[in-house]
Amino acid sequence: MPMLIAKRLAAVVVILLALTAVLFTLQQSSTADPVKTMLGPGASRQLVLDTRKKLGLDDPLTAQYVRYVEHLVHGDLGTSYRTRRAVSTDLGTFLPATVELTLFALVLALLLAVGFAVATTLRWPGANAFRLLLLVGASAPAFLLAIGGIIIFYKQLGWLPATGRTDILDAPTGPTGLLTVDAVLHARPDVLGNALQHLLLPGLAIAIGPAVSIGRVLRSSLVTTLRTDYTRTARAKGLREVQVMRKHVLRNSIGPALSMTGLQVGLMFAGVLVVELIFAWPGLGQYTAQSIPVDDFPAIAGVMLLLGVAYVLINTVVDLLQAAADPRIEA
Model's pTM, two decimal places? Predict the structure, then answer.
């Protein structure tokens, strides 16, 4: 296990260096002049030249890249051309809303996936209807599910809210920035209930597609494991099917599903950024959408780097969880 952890951490470093190289290359190939974007169209030519020299943009590309990586290591993601604040400060403001929505969607996806796999494998009553509903939902992109959810559950039925994180004006804003967690810490059940209502529609729009992908892989693994000799032996001992599933099948079937979960996280990040725009969710999607029209590359690169780091780390954790679930996995 220690050797596996060391290898995965080394791979993380290599991947992140490659990611920084891609972002640096994109910045260099951009047609927008960062200095003119920063100073505005009315800046004099001399001021532009002086600023380029001050920022080191006339240095060789290798020196610029080394400096870029050094700044990233120290948490310096640059300054946003639009907000005039440090990108790290902006990300700290918008990140909690995205984290909360992503975690909620991931939990929903895992619950739906396990329900899909177990119900169809054990052929519970209503399993086929549940399977059909999920498959229909997964056939549509996240933004279409989001719009459909707003039309049905907000416009027509009036069951769920369509925008924002909460309707409560005095909702707590700390210490975590995650509204549901802060509501629990401040003993505010009204805020918790309202926040969960706001999370449900965007969370489902993001979760349904990954849930079906994970559920299919898990179901296939469950079916294979149920045919093994040790499963037949467990049945011969008189254990009920649910007990066999819980004690002998799930752990031995979870590896492929964990791998698929890691892959689906990247798709969930893309879905989150789009869905946030539809629901006016104050997260990284809104921040990115506001930065693109003004060529605010430091802000865009900061979001891309943050999501890339999160994706790599999550997949590393998934690899370690697979090793913990199946000791046969070698370093």
Answer: 0.80
